[in-house]
């Protein structure tokens, strides 16, 4: 199963190390990513025109891949804009304020609500729904916006996505690759997801409170200070919304919650997953936006629907603009490389990132402890493309190889690779992957990645040690 590593593999790895070094130093990586794309294109095509064209085409590729996330964020933001302007969001938030009375309660409350919601919706749409409702409450009781983003990120893109017990997209991919029943991988992942989740969230909370006490906390706010503040901002050309009675606000708030509850029911009944589930949430948000706008603006409703959508799209593309070059580079680690530059990798290659993972697995001796460490590292490396899902099939196949050599632990090793890949690539460490939480909370995705780094690394270490005893 040996893979011949080429110059392209080593150049890609070198740029990953450089990018990670810059991220730790809190420097911008856009230019480095563009340079990396250009260098890989030059090696692949051996022509200046091919490498220059590859930079642009990689941007197009990344934009297409990210479009679903950009759209759902933009539409949810547009919907939340009209909810905030009409005051309906305050009516929705009111019942929660009695539970979130301190920064600690806000951190854990937002996290648990995010986790439960993400099990059903997947994290990207869930973070928009939860953020717009709970972020103002959290800030009001003293939880920083970055602290709220950490909670939503770790509980949603971390715990919920790495387990994925409702939609089951992740365990199905890894189980199929390992030749195991989905149920066995899900059962094996439960203790690992619990350990990883507890260690990371407790560590992140402790570090936040420690840094706040010693004055070293940085909230990482970007130009858009917070979702609530941004969406509540008034522009001169805005038409005032007609007053809505408290009773009507209450009914509309209930109707909105019922519509999203109906989405959850439809996901179960129709077995909607991933993009289909996101599309259902997005379509519902457009419907809510349209109805609330017509009720609030009446004879100006037709024009205001367009106005709110434009505002949402401006928000989405403004936030995602700096992310596209970074995403473009990391996508080259997977299928994008062949799509953009042709079949220039070795015949047996499964993509640059996966080849590096296979090379790592083949370079170490096979036993329980080394197997657990290698699956964690391999999963983390395959997560560097930022999707969290592209490499988990590789993690499953390598886990099967290790389990065959060791004689046991196939399900545990498979689950460990899945947890590592999704925690790194699913949206807690790679800056462009965790953009939804950063965008909704109005904080820098790079600051959020830095804040998550130590808790996630500590969590992966502890989880790997636990897996050694379970193999």
Task: Describe the protein in words.
- This is Transporter.
- Keywords: Membrane, Transmembrane, Transmembrane helix.
- The chain crosses the membrane at residues 6-24, 31-60, 66-84, 104-121, 127-143, 150-167, 187-208, 251-271, 277-296, 308-332, 369-389, 429-446, 453-470.
- With 471 residues, the chain is mainly α.
- It has a domain at 66-168 and 181-322.
- The chain is built from 21 helices and no strands.
- It has helices spanning 7-24, 30-45, 48-86, 88-97, 103-121, 123-140, 145-163, 169-178, 182-214, 227-232, 246-270, 274-297, 301-320, 323-331, 336-341, 352-362, 368-382, 392-406, 410-428, 435-441, 445-470.
- Helix 4 (88-97) packs across helix 6, helix 9 crosses helix 21 and helix 17 runs antiparallel to helix 18 (392-406).
- It is globular and about 70 Å long.
Uncertain ranges: 223-238
Structural class based on helices, strands and sheet pairing? mainly alpha
Distance between the first and last residues' Cα: 23 Å
Count the beta strands.
0
**Oligomeric form of this entry?**
single chain
Give the mean pLDDT. 83
Organism: Paenibacillus glucanolyticus
Keywords: Membrane, Transmembrane, Transmembrane helix
Protein name: Transporter
């Amino acid at each position: 199963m040996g893979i011949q590593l080429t110059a392209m593999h080593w150049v890609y790895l070198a740029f990953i190390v450089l990018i990670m070094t810059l991220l730790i130093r809190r420097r911008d990586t856009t230019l480095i990513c563009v340079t990396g794309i250009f260098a890989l294109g030059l090696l692949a095509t051996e022509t200046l025109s091919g490498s220059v064209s590859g930079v642009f085409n990689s941007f197009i590729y990344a934009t297409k891949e990210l479009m679903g996330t950009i759209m759902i964020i933009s539409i949810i933001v547009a919907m939340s804009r009209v909810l905030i302007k009409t005051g309906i969001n305050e009516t929705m938030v009111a019942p929660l304020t009695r539970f979130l009375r301190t920064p600690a309660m806000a951190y854990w409350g937002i996290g648990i609500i995010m986790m439960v919601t993400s099990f059903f919706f997947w994290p990207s749409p869930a973070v928009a729904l939860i953020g717009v409702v709970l972020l103002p409450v959290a800030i009001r009781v003293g939880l920083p916006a970055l602290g709220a983003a950490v909670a939503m990120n770790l509980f949603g893109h971390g715990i919920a996505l790495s387990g994925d017990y409702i939609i089951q997209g992740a365990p199905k991919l890894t189980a199929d690759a390992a030749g195991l029943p989905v149920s066995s991988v899900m059962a094996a992942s439960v203790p690992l997801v619990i350990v990883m989740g507890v260690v990371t969230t407790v560590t992140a909370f402790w570090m936040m409170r420690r840094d706040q006490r010693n004055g070293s906390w940085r909230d990482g706010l970007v130009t858009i200070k917070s979702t609530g503040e941004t969406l509540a901002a008034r522009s001169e050309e805005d038409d005032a919304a007609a007053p809505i009675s408290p009773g009507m606000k209450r009914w509309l708030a209930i109707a909105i919650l019922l519509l999203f509850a109906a989405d959850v029911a439809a996901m179960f009944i129709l077995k909607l997953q991933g993009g289909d589930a996101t599309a259902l949430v997005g379509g519902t948000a457009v419907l809510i936006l349209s109805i609330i706008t017509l009720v609030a603006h009446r004879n100006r409703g037709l024009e205001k629907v367009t106005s709110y959508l434009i505002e949402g799209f401006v928000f989405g593309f403004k936030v995602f603009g700096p992310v596209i070059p970074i995403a473009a580079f990391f996508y080259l680690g997977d299928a994008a490389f062949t799509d953009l530059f042709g079949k220039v990798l070795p015949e047996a290659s499964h993509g640059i990132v996966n080849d590096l993972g296979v090379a790592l697995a083949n370079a170490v001796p096979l036993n329980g402890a080394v197997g657990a460490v290698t699956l964690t590292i391999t999963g983390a490396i395959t997560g560097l493309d930022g999707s969290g899902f592209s490499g988990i099939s590789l993690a499953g196949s390598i886990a099967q190889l290790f389990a065959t050599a060791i004689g046991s632990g196939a399900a545990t090793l498979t689950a460990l690779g899945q947890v590592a890949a999704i925690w790194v690539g699913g949206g807690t460490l790679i800056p462009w992957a965790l953009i939804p939480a950063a965008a909704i909370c109005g904080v820098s995705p790079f600051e959020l990645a830095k804040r998550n780094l130590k808790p996630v690394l500590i969590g992966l270490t502890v989880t790997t040690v636990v897996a050694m005893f379970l193999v």
